[in-house]
Amino acid sequence: MPAVVGEDGIARCPWGAGDPVSTAYHDTEWGMRVSGEAAHLERLTLEAFQSGLSWLTILNKRPHFRAAFADFDADTVAAFDESDVERLMADTGIVRNRRKVDAAIANARATVALRERGGLESFIWSFRPEPGPAPHTTGDVPTTSPESVALAKALKKLGFAHVGPTTMYALMEAIGLVDDHLEGCHRRGCATTLP
């Protein structure tokens, strides 16, 4: 499916042309460079929680995720213990999946450890691929790439969990490492590039 023109006359990727929450995310955030450790840990965590679910479900729960995970402050989440896990598992505002909760805590701990190697942000961005051609339809958008496979493998080696190649490709799209806004979408080319 190609880019679609909404009632407002603006062309968007089809997934961003439906409900207002998805439209706002598409128009103001998806594919844009984020900055800082917490922003990268948040995106990584939310992509892991999204696995098997609708992204809209995660977007609607995002304020609860931020509250539950201390705005994704890696030091705070890394210090979570079993009582925090029980608190999270009782929190109806987030996705209550024990493996994903455990992974979020493990990933915060791995993020803290990764500071010795330059930090999460620079590590993720070191897997940035060369820009590719604009996809014309949703069918042209891949779900993995050699870079997402390599990133997933490297993160797992560092102790990260729930970071498979598909999840990491979604992360790369979300934070602007790749620009998968469709040809004709008003956000195509919006990603902030590295200096």
Automatic annotation (TrEMBL):
<dbReference type="Pfam" id="PF03352">
    <property type="entry name" value="Adenine_glyco"/>
</dbReference>
<protein>
    <submittedName>
        <fullName>DNA-3-methyladenine glycosylase I</fullName>
    </submittedName>
</protein>
<dbReference type="InterPro" id="IPR011257">
    <property type="entry name" value="DNA_glycosylase"/>
</dbReference>
<dbReference type="InterPro" id="IPR005019">
    <property type="entry name" value="Adenine_glyco"/>
</dbReference>
<dbReference type="InterPro" id="IPR052891">
    <property type="entry name" value="DNA-3mA_glycosylase"/>
</dbReference>
